[in-house]
Design goal:
It is a single chain. The chain is α+β, with helices and mostly antiparallel strands. The chain has 4 domains: 49 residues; 101 residues, conserved putative lor/sdh protein from methanococcus maripaludis s2 fold, CATH 2.40.420; 98 residues, Efflux pump adaptor protein, beta barrel domain (Elongation Factor Tu (Ef-tu), domain 3, Beta Barrel); 142 residues, OB fold (Dihydrolipoamide Acetyltransferase, E2P) (Beta Barrel). Helices cover 35% and strands 31% of the residues. The protein contains 6 helices and 21 strands. The longest helix is centred in the N-terminal third of the chain and has 36 residues. The two termini are 49 Å apart.
């Protein structure tokens, strides 16, 4: 308003000067602003330069909080090792012959007694026939001796034949009996060799790749490896446990009133997945290896789905529930500074403050145990730590409340979108 009045006065002054200049001819006329208006104009300009717009105060930062509570902590010990089969049986050729047939699929499941390989039987069939012929000849000789000996005994008793003929007949009978026994053994050996031409599975399990091909000569000089069968159900887990871990596991089991072998074992595979069936400890070696200060132990796991294979690396976790309750907080709520741990606590007045705490060295998943510094019922900040300032107010919400608010906002936005769409239609 002041600027408008001054501008109007300037305009009227110029008009008066112009009229007076015309009346006086070439006489020069200068316009002068009254002192009171000039002073008011300068004051208005100065005040307009000094005034600043009012900056709105930002709302308190939004943070996620969690109420401190106590709970039982599950203690666990993890051992790293390798899976192996209770039985890894090498299938070998016991006789020398050419391989005729392979009757299994590599990597498949086989049952005890299944026919796996067939060798050329002809040489062994001939050997069996010859052995049976020799046996028949030996039996014929023994039969003749059994007829001669009784007859000579009668003649000798009647002094119709000398004693030496009876003695010779008795010796011949014994020799013929020995020949029959030898021939029978050769027949059995030939039958056994012929039976070895059919190579069968000695146990049920998973068979590996074949080591020979059809037409190969096997069994020459030594038993040739044909394939390997591994029992896979159940399957064993082997590991070497340090003395310290073993003693800790024993102590933990004793505290729970149980033995180490009675603790359930859970198998965790290389990809992080957990085997559905729990196992049990079945073997602890009698000595500690003095070179590595470890003791060898073994656990057994069911493997009905045949998913586990010998040679896999895995971990076994042994868990014990703790009878004592502890304050447990998320590890992400901790602030580490110069070797000390802090948490942000939100007071009843809604202000945040940093508080030092003492935590246990061992982590339990993504949580830590707080030994000192927190009380049950207090609220700690778990998300938004970077927004906090000592003593500054905050807008604290739990995870559930934040999720509910986000859902409500999404619903409102959807409603607004639908209304806008209807208005355009």
């Amino acid at each position: 308003m002041l600027f408008f009045l001054v501008s109007k006065e300037l305009t009227m002054g110029r008009e008066r000067g112009t009229r007076e200049g015309l009346m006086k001819g070439n006489q020069k006329n200068r316009f002068k602003l009254p002192a009171k208006w000039a002073s008011a104009l300068l004051t208005g300009i100065f005040l307009s330069q000094c005034e600043k717009p009012t900056i709105p105060v930002p709302p308190p930062p939004l943070v996620q909080v969690q109420e401190v509570s106590k709970g039982k902590v599950e203690r666990s010990t993890t051992f790293i090792g390798k899976l192996d089969s209770p039985q890894n049986v090498e299938v070998r050729a016991r006789v020398e012959s050419f391989l005729d047939k392979i009757l299994f699929e590599e990597g498949s499941e086989v049952k005890a007694g299944d026919l796996l390989f067939e060798l050329d039987k002809k040489p062994y069939e001939e050997k069996l026939a010859a052995a049976k012929g020799a046996l028949a000849q030996a039996q014929a000789g023994l039969s003749k001796s059994k007829i001669d000996v009784p007859r000579l005994k009668v003649l000798v008793a009647q002094n119709a034949a000398p004693q030496r003929e009876l003695d010779a007949a008795l010796s011949t009978e014994e020799a013929n009996a020995a020949n029959v026994a030898s021939a029978e053994a050769k027949v059995k050996s030939a039958e056994l060799d012929l039976g070895y031409c059919e190579v069968r599975a000695p146990l049920s399990g998973r068979i590996g790749a074949k080591s020979v091909s059809v037409g190969s000569l096997v069994g020459k000089g030594e038993p040739t490896l044909l394939a390997t069968i591994s029992q896979v159900d159940p399957i064993w887990f082997y590991c070497s446990v340090s003395e310290v871990d073993y003693l800790n596991a024993e102590r933990m089991a004793s505290e729970a009133g149980r033995k180490l072998g009675e603790l359930p074992a859970h198998l965790i595979l290389a990809d992080g997945s957990k085997h559905p069936d729990a196992g049990k400890w079945v073997f602890v070696d009698r000595v500690v290896d003095i070179t590595t200060a470890t003791i060898r132990v073994r656990a057994e796991f069911p493997n009905s789905r045949r998913a586990l294979r010998p040679g896999m690396f895995a971990r076994v976790q042994v868990s014990l529930p703790s009878e004592e309750e502890h304050i447990l907080i998320p590890e992400r709520a901790l602030v580490e500074l110069q070797g000390k741990s802090f948490v942000w606590v939100v007071s009843a007045e809604g202000k945040g403050s940093q508080r030092p705490v003492e935590v246990a060295a061992k982590r339990y998943g993504s949580n830590v145990i707080v030994l000192k510094g927190l009380e049950v019922g207090e609220r700690i900040v778990v998300e938004g730590l970077q927004k906090l300032r000592e003593g500054a107010p905050v807008q604290a919400m739990t995870a559930e409340a934040m999720a509910a608010a986000a859902a409500a906002n999404a619903a409102k936005a959807q409603e607004a979108k639908e209304e806008t769409k209807k208005g355009k239609e």
